[in-house]
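hey m, so remember when u said the tokens were messed up on ur end? i reran from scratch. heres the input so u can diff it against urs
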Amino acid sequence: MPRPRAFDEESVLDNAMNIFWSKGFESTSVQDLVEETGLNRASMYSSFGDKKALFLRVLDHYSLKISSKRFAKLRETEDGRTAIVTTFKDTTRHSCEDGHLKGCLMVNSGMELAPHDPETAAIAQQAFRRVEDMFANALKRGINTGTISADKNVRALARFFAGSIQGVHLMARRGADRETIEDYTDTILAALD
């Protein structure tokens, strides 16, 4: 009979997520993961596999925990225009707070690994498509309620917003100041007019 795990899997994934998010995949060593998660190497390998397998689990964990929370208002706010504006304003505010200059783990990982890692590229593309679809649904809600003009190309604008929200994260990651990110966000949101 297998022994029960002596660790909290969610806590391990949270800690591994934080180190990958801060350092990236390539710069995170197995020793970093051991120190950050509190697991010994044998437990880490038997429970999660190698570094890459753990990283892929972390990306799933990030999508469920961080991304779903980050885009909740985009999905749930009845007026689509308000949903989009609030999502960008919240992302800008959060990105500029002390300690949040990590950007987005999914965006960072896509930039770092997607050019040479098909698994990460596929996950990053799926994540982009989900965000694009959320923006498309919000745009449709805004058109239906009359807060967004019906002459907008929903799919093209949704792609623009999905790419632009990634841009906010990239700017934050490189340390852009609040005024710069706010100007960028205001220019993006002008596409709703």
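this time it looks ok to me. Residues 101 and 172 are 5 Å apart (CA to CA). if urs says something different then somethings off w ur setup not the seq
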